[in-house]
Amino acid sequence: MVKHRFLRTMLTFAVAGIAALGIAAQPAQAATQSPYPNALVEYMASTRTGPYVNSGTYWGYALRQSYAANAPRQTVAVGCWWDGDWATGNYSTNRWFRVLVWESYDGYDVPRWLFVHASYVYNQPTVPHCIATSTGIWNP
To answer: How far is CA 26 from CA 5, 13, 31, 109, 125, in A?
Structure first.
């Protein structure tokens, strides 16, 4: 677990270093998927494998949809919601959304279904409650 955290940290620094040199990877595109509704996720919002704040669920940070300074959010598909751990972002809530998001761990390879604290999700659509199984929490 510590090894994975170290590798994620090193990857984040490497991406930042490349961006500083002006040779950055391509910006993320919208992470949408039919038939899921769309929302906006704030740049640098923490992405997690579960709707919890413990370190074992941390995955990375939401990336920008473009490099434009006036584009601080990413368009994402929203699968479902779950009431998990209480956290304070832009406001306090225990609501989390499972979204298809481009994030810093995988970078620009593929968007991934992860949880984002509701306070970082804008234009929140009406979506169903997530389904819990023995292998995790999933879209219905």
So the answer is: 24, 17, 14, 10, 28
